[in-house]
Amino acid sequence: MLTYILMIIITIISGFSLYKARKPKELGKSWHVPWNGLVFLGLISLLVLIRHQFTLSGIDFPAR
Fold first, then answer.
1. How far is CA 31 from the centre of its chain?
2. Could you tell me which residues come within 8 angstroms of residue 14 by beta carbon, excluding any fewer than 6 positions away?
3. In Å, how far are 6, 16, 54, 62 from 23, measured between CA atoms?
4. Which of the residues 7, 26, 40, 63 has the least number of beta carbons within 10 Å of its own beta carbon?
């Protein structure tokens, strides 16, 4: 259950970060938050949580 809650929270944060990253910046002002970096970290952590959920469900992936 905790995995699902974290996946929802990360999806919301990543969606908001994507919205802010695509918004054009005002001339003469710089962004204070690296929105593209937050989108990247959100996607990586979402992939890790999906893999974790598969492992909890008993679906094993082959090793490298």
1. 20
2. 38, 39, 42, 43, 46
3. 26, 11, 35, 40
4. 63
pLDDT in tens, 19-41: 999 988 888 877 688 999 999 99
Structure tokens at 42: 């959100």
Mapped to the 3 state alphabet, what secondary structure does the chain carry?
Answer: CHHHHHHHHHHHHHHHHHHHHHCCCCCCCCCCCCHHHHHHHHHHHHHHHHHHHHHHCCCCCCCC
Residue 44 has pLDDT above 70, yes or no: yes
